Structures are given as structure tokens and as C-alpha cells.
């Protein structure tokens, strides 16, 4: 992607990655963003003080990650959204609960679908997480320890046979997941970080204007 400005790193400033960036008018303000969550998500996610929502407000993801989450809500939980509301919710969450370029840089290959590579997965996550997921999948998320634990429970809810899988049934999997793996994930990929605080304060690239997109479509060629 090219225009008159330097290439913005990791798409943290908007949703240009999947074509929903429509200019400044599409940006969701904080008040509007909270209202969008209230209108579309509060049937399942309880709102607490200061516009915080259970299972939403204690994690950070890339725009692509939030997009995947909302797709799952639509597929599994019958969430119904207009295209405009979906784009604004994703952009609001990516702006306020995204990843800094420095946090996402080591795993950009997954966002760019450059996946023909061998990952170096930390030993503590290799058997517990990476036997099902790529390392980049969980490394591109930031959660509190409690929220990582909630994610463990989500896995059990979606896949009740998880503890019977290979590399699960030979150990107290749930105890390890909750009390060791989730704690280590919370330390390694913490919700609070200096990189994110610095990125929130940084001047962002200006994305408005005319863009020229260059790429390749498999089976069709360059465009």
C-alpha cells in the first residue's frame, strides 16, 4: 500500500487491512464506541463501571483479531450487525484496545498471511497452546491473567473433549492451563504494556487521501 506518507506499521491506526476504512467520518468516538458495544454486545457481555464490558474490556487484539472475534459471535451466537456497525465496532476496539506496532512486529507474518515458515514456540506454550494454534495466534493478543483464565474456560466450553486429546489426557490439563499456562501468558502477553501506552500517545500516520493498492491474487496474478 502506498501514498504520500510512510507506510503505517501493523495497521494499528485503522482498518485498512480489510477495506472498511472510509475516512474520518467512519471513526468511532469513545462515547459512540461504548454505545455501539452497549447496543450490540450487552445481551451477553455485562457492562460495568466506566463503560467496561465483561470478556471484552480486559483484552487487546489487532484489527484482524477483533474482526475474527466478531465473525465468531455472528456464526456461533447469532449476533446481527449492519456492515457499518461492524466496521465501527472493530475500529473502535482496534483504536482503544489494539496492539502497538512494536508488540505485533514479531508476528506480522500471520497478519500478512505469510505463513510458510517454522515458528519458534516457547516451551511452556508449545504443548499447551501451539499443538492446536500457531504461536502467532496467541502472541497477537494481550489479556489480564484472569482473562487468559476465562479463555481457558471458553476452550472447554467450545471443545468439551479437550482434556481427552493427546497431550491433555496424560496430565492434569485444566489445572496446568489455569494455574500455570494462563499465568505465564498473562506475564508474557500482559494487558498493560509500555509499548501500548507509548503508541496511544504517539502521532499516528494520516490515512485519509487516495491510495494505490498493489498485490497478487493466487491463480489470477498481480493487480
Describe the structure.
The chain has 223 residues and is mainly α. It contains ten helices and four strands. The chain has helices at 30-41, 63-77, 83-96, 101-104, 108-111, 123-126, 135-139, 145-158, 173-188, 194-201; strands at 59-61, 141-143, 216-217, 221-222. The strands form two sheets. The chain has a two-stranded antiparallel sheet with strand order 1-2. A two-stranded antiparallel sheet has the order 3-4. A hairpin with a 3-residue loop joins strand 3 (216-217) and strand 4. Helix 8 (145-158) packs across helix 9 (173-188). It starts with 29 loop residues before the first helix and ends with a strand.
How many helix segments? 10
Q: Let me know the largest β-sheet.
A: 2 strands, antiparallel
- Percent strand equals under 5%
Please bin the fraction of helical residues.
40-55%
Shape: globular
Structural class: mainly alpha
Spatial extent as radius of gyration: 19 Å
Q: Summarize the helix and strand pattern as letters.
A: HEHHHHHHEHHHEE
Average the pLDDT over all residues and give the rounded result.
87
Strands side by side in the biggest sheet: 1-2
Alpha-carbon distance between the two ends: 12 Å
**Beta strand count:** 4
Low-confidence stretches: 1-27
